[in-house]
């Protein structure tokens, strides 16, 4: 079971709901260590004093805020806690908004909220009220010495707290160079293209099932690691492959309708085609005909080679007499 990383309460109005905060995600990235390629010794991570160049023990490292050049105010863990004791112990709901109104790029890290002792009734009340109104709660919470804006959402029977980015942390979309919505310009989407794209999207639509998607890159990398272990290549480096510069392709006009139609046809052949109408009986002889000569070619080539060698003269003079007779015949014709 996931660990408890925070204990406090949800507050809105005069309501106080004791809760605990638990992680809702985990990292599946491979834990790789840095090694010295010469002797495979681990490369450690050291905190170095920039003045002396010597490593510093962890217990001697403190956090400081530079308020002037080379002048610092040192802050301890107790300073962070006492800055706002109430803020570090509450998920303070400040407003409710429509869940669909929150742009996705504001979301950051998800957490689960679980009712603590004597918090079940208030937890259920808040959850069912939010479910009925379709609202998300916007709250302020302090985690790991930093205040976060957070969105509280209902998922099944749980309240999920998703930390968010503040508005000044999100870069404005207006800085992007985007195609206009009008279809009159070359960069816009035309009605025919939209119609075909809608059909393709509908054809590719399915129920939400996240378990069917996997980090295939991680799986392939683990398979390569296991292959190296099995073959005994535990201390060998794989040489870098030589990359050839890809030839530059000239720009060409893209027919979006043709590409969309091709995509629909391809998907239809994969899943929607009626197999009973396929000429299966005609396909079998073709596959056999392609494979059959491969078995006959090898001996045929050997036989042709043996016949050619039988016709060749056993001594070099045969080649000269043949060329001489051809020369004489040409002179007579002349």
Automatic annotation (TrEMBL):
Q: Where is the composition biased (Basic and acidic residues)?
A: 264-286
Please name the Pfam families in this protein's record: Ku
Q: How does it assemble?
A: Homodimer. Interacts with LigD.
Q: Which CDD domains match?
A: KU_like
Compositionally biased residues, Basic residues: 287-300
What is the official name of this protein in its record?
Answer: Non-homologous end joining protein Ku
> SUPFAM superfamilies given for it?
SPOC domain-like (SSF100939)
Family, similarity comment: Belongs to the prokaryotic Ku family.
Tell me which residues make up the Ku domain: 53-181
Record keywords, A-Z:
DNA damage, DNA recombination, DNA repair, DNA-binding
Under Gene3D superfamilies, the record lists: 2.40.290.10
Query: What is the annotated role of this protein in its UniProt record?
Result: With LigD forms a non-homologous end joining (NHEJ) DNA repair enzyme, which repairs dsDNA breaks with reduced fidelity. Binds linear dsDNA with 5'- and 3'- overhangs but not closed circular dsDNA nor ssDNA. Recruits and stimulates the ligase activity of LigD.
Organism in which the protein naturally occurs: Cupriavidus pinatubonensis
Highest taxon of the lineage: Bacteria
Extract the ranges annotated as region (Disordered): 230-251, 263-334
Q: Which PANTHER family match?
A: NON-HOMOLOGOUS END JOINING PROTEIN KU
